[in-house]
Amino acid sequence: MERALTSGNYNEAIYKAIKKLRTNKDAKRKQDYILLLKDAYDKANERDENSIARLKASNNPEYYKRIYETYNALEKRQNAVRPLLPLSIKGREVYFGYNDYTSDIVEARDNVSGHYYQKGIQLLDTNDKFQIRDAYNTLSYIEDINPNYQSTRAFMEEAHVRGTAHVIVAIENQTNQVIPRRLEDALLDFNTYGLDQFWTQYHAFANDSLDYDYAMQLQLARINISPEQVREREVLRQQRVRDGWQYVYDANGNVAKDSLGNDIKEDKFITARARLFQFEQFKQSEILANVVFTDLKSNETIEQFNIDSGFVFENFYATFRGDRRALTPDDRDLLRNRPVPFPSNEQMVFDSGEDLKVRLKDIIADYKF
Questions:
Q1: Where does 164-369 sit in CATH, by number?
Q2: Per-residue pLDDT, 5
Q3: What is the dihedral of CA 154, 158, 161, 162, to 10 degrees?
Q4: What is the 3-state secondary structure (H, E, C) of 92-103?
Q5: How far apart are the first and last CA of the chain?
Q6: pLDDT at 14 over 90
Q7: What is the percentage of the chain residues whose pLDDT exceeds 70?
Q8: Helical H runs in 125-203?
Q9: What is the pTM of this model?
Q10: Which of 16, 142, 158, 216 qualifies as a FRET site for 351, CA 20 to 30 Å off?
Q11: Where in the chain are the domains?
Q12: Using CB atoms within 10 A of its CB, is residue 262 exposed (0-12), middle (13-18) or buried (19+)?
């Protein structure tokens, strides 16, 4: 806390002291925190008031925002300390200066609103989308501090419409294979991508009323589907298991007796053996694709990404011959499984397409126009 004060981090020192004084503020052990709070509070206020005076003296409209935010910082600091007051040391109240900054804040807010409004309107007076987006951000600041100043919202809506990049999307099948229609529909259904891109809209179907800025082409280059395979592996299992009981005999060949005269018995163990036949049904599909972004204004390719997506079908099951007791718990679980029909090639391609869609979403989400 003292380090924050001596290094000029007055606000940090203030809020740490406030936290300490929220409980038992009148306790003797808390007096050092009161002194520290007083020192940091006065120095922070003096620094901010001097800063405002210098900024005002420069008569530069670019400083209006800093002036406004500094007045807000002064008021916020006062409001943070006020719930603790009065604070006393050895019975004497410690004075914390208070000013009503309401009129100063209103004046500064109006100044920055007017200046930013002019900047926003000037930025809107262009066809450059990036400057139009700057106009939106400039007007958005006004909306935050001075809602709907000079019809700010209407100009923000205009900026959003004009600053949005529209991307037309197409799928090109270069594989010489038939692509399932439901896969194409799924890839083009951007409502399911969960995208939240404020400045970009993707269109699967062309809208004649829009002048598209970019094109995204999903080129399906190759589809690989492996043959249906059933892999078999034979494993020998053996395990020593209890197999009933038997009498214990003494050295004379008679059944041994315990102290009560009862026959002594013991567990009988044998080695159980079994052959386990493990089966794996396996089929794999892969889609190789390219994503190409084109600037439609210059008709130039601006970026290209390669995608390797796939899907693996696997099913494991087993049979055995021999003594079941030789099998492990995992073996017994495998015995419950059964062979299942292999998915069709169309289904494999569709499932690979689901993985393709996830990878395509990552590319779209990361790419900014």
A1: 3.30.160
A2: 64
A3: -170
A4: EECCCCCCCCHH
A5: 45
A6: no
A7: 98
A8: 129-145, 152-163, 181-188
A9: 0.76
A10: 216
A11: 2-99, 109-163, 164-369
A12: exposed
